[in-house]
């Protein structure tokens, strides 16, 4: 997989997580069925930390929940460390499959 394809997929996934935060905020205001906190955090853990944090700040959603105010920045850090490690190993010629 090329770096460009990975970055495109990364951008699309984080955009999806951002939109999911907005949808959950809207559903909260309308008192409708919601996306679970566990699912939102899972989406952030699956390389969607940037979208989770951006959605949290932009929509002012889950900003009082400690697991989001601490967890989202922590997930960004873990996501970037993981991506950096995989990129380093891949560029070093190590087969990852």
TrEMBL record:
It comes from Desulfosporosinus nitroreducens. This is DUF1294 domain-containing protein. The keyword Membrane applies. The chain crosses the membrane at residues 38-56, 68-90. The lineage of its organism: Bacteria, Bacillati, Bacillota, Clostridia, Eubacteriales. Keywords: Membrane, Transmembrane, Transmembrane helix. Pfam families: DUF1294. It comes from the Bacteria. InterPro entries: DUF1294.
């Amino acid at each position: 997989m090329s770096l460009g394809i990975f970055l495109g997929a990364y951008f699309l996934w984080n955009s999806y997580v951002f939109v999911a935060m907005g949808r959950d905020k809207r559903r909260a205001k309308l008192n409708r069925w919601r996306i679970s906190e566990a699912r939102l955090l899972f989406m952030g853990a699956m390389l969607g930390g940037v979208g989770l944090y951006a959605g949290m700040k932009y929509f002012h959603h889950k900003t009082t929940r400690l697991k989001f105010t601490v967890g989202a920045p922590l997930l960004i850090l873990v996501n970037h460390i993981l991506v950096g490690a995989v990129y380093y190993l891949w560029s070093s010629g190590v087969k990852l499959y």
